[in-house]
């Protein structure tokens, strides 16, 4: 800062820490190109800056900086050329702080200090004006922050496009920040012909992985023109790392080293990170691009890059090329060698590495109440591809003293509509409690509500009576493998149907508490207490058949997912 730069009177440095021309600087702590502040120069306890903070005319802050609780960033205080130090705490006019100057490790920022809304954080980090930082929150290198810092629950980009070359984002939030090539790798001044944004996302618990909101089997090839440069901007909005691998080409990682930007064929993209890389189209044909976590690749996180020339060759509109020549850069030849044998046009018109798979998942819950000679079974099966499945569902089938008390099964078409929700419809076969078994149509919705509340709501219609069966439960994790499930289930109907033992209004309520221990993923042991209460006409039906209108049961059992 030069001599006309002053800090406001409420931003003073401690009186016993003056900096004038008589003060010597440590040889490696110089203020201008060779002068930094010595590590013992501190601002007072109310005006401290955290370790690693850098100051320059644009006020850049290092990626390791922490912000104290309550600190706001707005247009209030500016740390630029019009700010001055207090009249008795001036720095010599020849002592300026350039972009490489660090304040010492003891310096912290006061919780009330405000910073200019235009202040930039190191590696491209930006903060909205007025945003408050929680106590102890760390700002990862380059990560963009907004007031919420929430990861999306759905993709924000749908479909692959090549945009005009008018956007650039610096590589941030990765381990590649300081990686530099030993030799020149590219001409950084070569124009970019198109930008390809790639958002990496997935439904983790459903094993569906996307690039730009769709799995590979729903995507068309990404068409590339030869002898062009395309800029790829990767953003990882999932909670897993994705090592993205390209065949037949190099990624020129754009991390600020220009012609010495490194060449990589695989980019490891961390959660929340943004990576920018250029690709020069020096090849021909079509090439596979995918996440190198292979189950991500198999379940949708992949694409095919297709040169426009292969389409022309397949149609007989162009002749195969046979070009091999070197470039000024090490290990970067131009190789355009097309197959001279007849091409399989089906692989050109519809290239796809992995079609949609058929998946199956079966949940079985078996238990017994030794005090009342009762046994229970819950079964749920989902069978089919990612979005469309057959659901078979039996909920709380029960035998008591050798006779069946409850038994029905849903045979539904199940359709995934978002990461956490699915709709379903089909038929239900109802056996007990009823005088005669019957079929009825049904619809439903199931999913996960806020606060991790599992929801399963089904509706049925029989002989003019609409019946609603709603169930809600939540698993609370106590230790790594010990959980407690609490749940509630209610059944009500719009009309009494005696033959089906359906009563008008509320029929039944059930309340459960289930501690369980996870022996391994997909296998747990449990003990479940359930209180069951019947109401209205349904209660009358139960009493007339010799059943109790309320029950307390304690069931011990095993849950299996396979």
TrEMBL record:
Task: Enumerate composition-biased segments (Basic and acidic residues).
Answer: 1-103
Q: Which UniProt keywords apply?
A: Metal-binding
PROSITE patterns the UniProt entry points to: MULTICOPPER_OXIDASE1, MULTICOPPER_OXIDASE2
Sequence segments annotated as region (Disordered) = 1-115
Give the matching CDD domains.
Answer: CuRO_3_CopA (cd13896)
Q: InterPro entries from the entry?
A: Cu-oxidase_C, Cu-R_B_prcur, Cu_oxidase_CS, Cu_oxidase_Cu_BS, Cupredoxin, CuRO_3_CopA
Q: Which GO terms describe its molecular function?
A: copper ion binding; oxidoreductase activity
What are the record's GO terms for cellular component? cell outer membrane
Question: Is Metal-binding there in the keyword field?
Answer: yes
Query: Is Oxidoreductase a UniProt keyword of this protein?
Result: no
Q: Which GO terms describe its biological process?
A: intracellular copper ion homeostasis
Coiled-coil residues are none
All residue ranges annotated as the Plastocyanin-like domain in the record: 199-307
Q: Where is the composition biased (Low complexity)?
A: 104-115
Tell me where the transmembrane regions lie.
none
Checking Pfam families in the record gives: CopB (PF05275), Cu-oxidase_2 (PF07731)
Gene3D superfamilies per the record? Answer: Cupredoxins - blue copper proteins
What name goes with this protein?
Copper resistance protein A
